[in-house]
Predict the 3D structure of the following.
Amino acid sequence: MTWISDICCGRYFVWGNEVKLRTTCFCAEYSLIIVGFKMSSPLPKATTKKKKENEANDINTNKKQKKVAAALIPEIIPRDALESADEDFKDDDDETKRRFTAVAFNVAGLRALLKNKPECLRKIADETKCDAMMFSEHKLNPENVEEATRQLKELLPEFTTVKFACSTAKKGYAGVCVLAKGECEEARKKEGGKSPMKQTSIKDMFGGGASEKKKEAPIPTNDAAARRYDGPKLLKVTEGLLDGKHLSEGRAITLEYESFNALFTYVPNSGQKLDRLDWRINTWEKECREHLNALQAKKPTIYGGDLNVAHLDIDIYNVDAKHIPKSAGTTPEERNAFGVMTRECDMKDAFRYFHPGKSGWFTYWSQRVGNRPKNRGLRLDYFLASSKMFAKDAHVKVVSSRILTEMNGSDHCPVSITLALRE
């Protein structure tokens, strides 16, 4: 529809793309509307108000379009350069006992990773020299644990403690696994000091025939590696949250060391239709905070894993997209709950502590639409730590936190945290 205004004693009118002579003229207070190739009757003066409103709307629309055009997402999202995060602790510093590094990695199915890309796990262990590794979303059932434990100990023999938490509520779902160097003191005492901790199977619990036992290949152990490890003593490994909560989906494992605690979780996803959002916010988040506060009442604590939330705007590559507030992991409720946790538990996001405001650093990319090469992702994986662990004179001090974007093997990448343990 085209408006033609202020035609007084006019001799022309528009017909399609042509200007033709007219024999009738109208007063300037009238206008003409051309619809398609037909000319309507003259409109009364009252329509000029509507016309001005439409013109104003057109102007506003053009402004919005210009803003959208200016804010177009680049084909490849750039990563801001990071400065070195490590503090200046020298190897010969008398105040420094050693460093401890933990890695958390959502493997999106451990069985497939061990079959197709086992070298990925070996590379992570070699390059980070980590003391503990956590795999979330391993998707193993309890009956698969023994074989997976055997494969992990063959691939990563320096990790003498292996603990699985599996979902019993749903098969092939969720799950957390933790590998740690050194023997678990509690497990060693239960075993009579004979061997490092091993996963208990259903057959071990209820017994089996002698012929069945002969068929089972022994789980590899590395007693020499356990003896050589001079890192912090691992005192206890516990599954679930406080008071044994949330065992049925295998979402949490806590490691208790001499001077600190480490909680690893795979936080529940709220679902495509957000059908678990209320439960996550009002049950999981609340009980996770209670667990963290109980741990911190005894020792400084680190908390890592796939927390299934993109906290800040810079943790979302397309934060202005309309679907973001309605999508799992980016709802206002989930993002707000992350802030509630850091305040009520007095913890800090380790990566953001060292790299505030740095954009383009994500830990998850949709494989379905091929977003990883374009770096169009979300930051869903974290390490948090007690605020007192960032103090200059802390006995257990956070000195680094990294996002290992170069490590492949999943639609996530690993994240790490490094502690300096002082005498």
Notes: Residues 1-41, 88-92, 195-215 have pLDDT under 50 and may be disordered. The first helix runs from residue 47 to 70.
